Amino acid sequence: MTGYDAPPTTGGAGRPPLSLELLADLHAGVLDDRFAEEVRAQVAADPQAQATLAALDATTAQLGDLPPITIPDDVAARIDAALRDEAAGRVATHSPQGVPFPVTVAPPAAPTGHPTVPPLPMAP
């Protein structure tokens, strides 16, 4: 994930440990309210989980102190064009300099719900 090897949490009160991913989701606010409350109750009894959340708070604060990143106009224009092409269902076949990209067309996918079975050999 980030290279940060957090110590395993105890889970508190005999519960299984909380994963770093679950704590990050809690910190990011992506858990539904009821589940987030359950996890917060577990965090309250788990010093390692509390330390992990404090480290996430500190990291968020440090990132917030960084100056904004600006994207050069030509890069932003290429991104916008690629997004427009994607939204329109087109794929660019040439670079902005006119160099062709190799285009690979994938075979059609098997219908959903049906297994893909190789054809049987034909008898001579």
Please give a structural write-up.
7% of the residues are buried. The model has no long low-confidence stretch (mean pLDDT 77). Helix 1 (20-28) packs across helix 3 (47-64). The chain is elongated and about 65 Å long. The protein is mainly α. 44% of the residues lie in helices and 0% in strands.
What is the strand tally? 0
| N- to C-terminal distance | 56 Å
Number of helices: 4
Helix content: 40-55%
Describe the protein's topology.
Blueprint: H1 20-28, H2 33-44, H3 47-64, H4 73-87
Helix pairs in contact: 1-3
What can be said about this structure in brief?
The chain contains 4 helices and no strands.
Spell out the key features of this protein:
mainly alpha, elongated, 124 residues
